[in-house]
Amino acid sequence: MPLSDVLPSSSGNLRLVTLQDLANRAKALADEIHGKIPWFKVREWFKVTAVTFAARRDGSVVAVVSGSGRGLESASVEHVQSLTTHDEFGRPNMVLATNIPDTHAERNAVIYMAENDLRPLAGAAYLNACSPEGCNELVQKVGATMYGPITIATKKKIPGQAQYFWGDYQAWSRYVEHGE
User: Fold this and answer.
1) Close Cβ partners of 112 (under 8 Å, ≥ 6 residues apart)
2) What are residue 6's DSSP bridge partners?
3) DSSP string covering the chain
4) For residues 98 and 124, is the Cβ–Cβ distance under 8 A?
5) Closest by alpha carbon to 71, among 95, 96, 92?
6) Whole-model pTM?
7) CA geometry: angle at 53 spanning 123 and 21, to 5°?
């Protein structure tokens, strides 16, 4: 039986969404945002964009958008801003994770969620998570399970997956309390 979460639909009604479905939505959104980078070489070889859905304390969901290296390109930021709406409390449905220079997109998202009291649900990056000793291991260490098709999409040509969903919140709590 798949892990599930209840999320509001655009009509305001609740509907059942699996965390795998949420990871698929994150992948589509990460690909869309990443696709706004105008330079092919930068887009395909030097940057990664990740989207990770997380829950606030009240259960509302926010998309955490993060970039790698020097952060998101301005065209990606502008696209995120164009997609952002606000709830009745004025909170955005999408936020930009603080970029730590030379840090991978998934790590920037994890750090942002921990620092902002967000509970991760599911996410994905434009490219598969780097491995060994990289983002693949990090997201698993903090309680996520890698998900989706196995592709060869990194510079080092290591097979991997781009999507992930959380299931081990004890591991997440340990990370939040103690860091790496």
Assistant:
1) 64, 66, 95, 97, 98, 118
2) 16
3) ---EEEEE-TTS-EEEEEHHHHHHHHHHHHHHHHTT---HHIIIII--EEEEEEE-TTS-EEEEEEESBT---HHHHHHHHHH--B-TTS-BSEEEPPPPTTB-HHHHHHHHHHHTT-EEEEEEESSPPP-SSSHHHHHHHTTEEEES--EE-STT--EE--EEEE--HHHHHHHHHH--
4) no
5) 96
6) 0.87
7) 60
63-114: per-residue pLDDT in tens? 999 998 888 889 999 999 999 999 999 999 999 999 998 889 999 999 999 9
Residue pLDDT, tens place only, 19-77: 999 999 999 999 999 889 887 666 666 788 999 999 999 999 999 999 988 888 899 99
Q: Give residue 109's identity as a one-letter amino acid code.
A: A
Distance CA 162, CA 123 (A): 8
Provide the pLDDT for residue 8.
46
